[in-house]
């Protein structure tokens, strides 16, 4: 005769708001941790909704939807930073554990707030000014010298909401159709040599780990490739960049993954471009190239579990994004990629292919940078429809 067994202690439940590829890859990490993921997805067909079984389709700006979703979650975290801060504060006040919390998250949501805080902390930022109108933007450009960069304080992504203005002539552009509550931030144009990304993870109890700094290559405002560690980065500069990111995480009391996007000037010094408080495209290499992926460490942090080792597995790790191109049938295109390179690692996001859309990424690692990069570039190019690359 069998006796009923007790269901045992229940697993942790993490609610993820937003159903893009970041949520999908967090879900993958949750499986090994025995963590239950609950997803609030924008629609039934988004990337993570194709794999998570506990899915609510709903609007992440609707208080009733978000509050109902949060019931029973040990922690609520994010795939994007678009949940209104006021709504998150209400959630926190009602006892929901929101990680990162709204006070920290605001610095990833609003570039004006971020610039003000980081500058006050003495951290390196480009010269900037919040400008109320085109005349003030022109005055800033005349003082700093043209070109200048103008950005909307909120709502930009992948280079949208960022303008490089060559002269006063186009100063009206950033102000056209500005949504309520959105400001324009004018910034000194940084003639950078390259972009770097410093990723750290911090838990509520204050433990923090830093991943090696990556170089990130952007095209048309979209990350196309990362190389880790950043080639040629002076060890002292690497430590300084990691410390900078740890300082931001500590001062802002970030919980989970913090990405600090940096611009490295031609003299080697760095300034902060922007912050993200969720797993980040420049950390995708960690799935295959680090002992603990950014997705697993993010989940560990939001549950206040000890963090895993962020160290690399190989001297070089290269990640290349697969952007929608001429290939519709990505799974079939894998035949060639895998036949050619047995150590190639691939993540496809289950998204339909549209030009320029991030639909997957490939990762390679090895001892030789050129060879490792070549393998990643070939596979990504093939998946984007360029078999000769
Ligand atoms: P988004 O939020 O769309 O990612 P960013 O603020 O990261 O916007 O800017 C997009 C890109 O514009 C950056 O990756 C960088 O290449 C460039 N950029 C941003 N700020 C500056 C600046 N002050 N000087 C020069 N280039 C900049």
TrEMBL record:
Signal peptide: none annotated. GO terms for biological process: 'de novo' IMP biosynthetic process. ATP binds at residues 111, 151, 187-190, 195, 273-274. Residues 115-303 form the ATP-grasp domain. This is N5-carboxyaminoimidazole ribonucleotide synthase. Pathway: Purine metabolism; IMP biosynthesis via de novo pathway; 5-amino-1-(5-phospho-D-ribosyl)imidazole-4-carboxylate from 5-amino-1-(5-phospho-D-ribosyl)imidazole (N5-CAIR route): step 1/2. It catalyses: 5-amino-1-(5-phospho-beta-D-ribosyl)imidazole + hydrogencarbonate + ATP = 5-carboxyamino-1-(5-phospho-D-ribosyl)imidazole + ADP + phosphate + 2 H(+). Keywords: ATP-binding, Ligase, Nucleotide-binding, Purine biosynthesis. The keyword Ligase applies. Homodimer. The gene is purK. It holds the Pfam family PurK_C. GO terms for molecular function: 5-(carboxyamino)imidazole ribonucleotide synthase activity; ATP binding; metal ion binding; phosphoribosylaminoimidazole carboxylase activity. NCBIfam families: PRK06019.1-5, PRK06019.1-6, purK. Catalyzes the ATP-dependent conversion of 5-aminoimidazole ribonucleotide (AIR) and HCO(3)(-) to N5-carboxyaminoimidazole ribonucleotide (N5-CAIR). It comes from Friedmanniella luteola. InterPro entries: ATP-grasp, ATP-grasp_carboxylate-amine, ATP_grasp_subdomain_1, PreATP-grasp_dom_sf, PurK, PurK_C, PurT/PurK_preATP-grasp, Rudment_hybrid_motif. It is an enzyme of class 6 (ligase). Its EC number is 6.3.4.18.
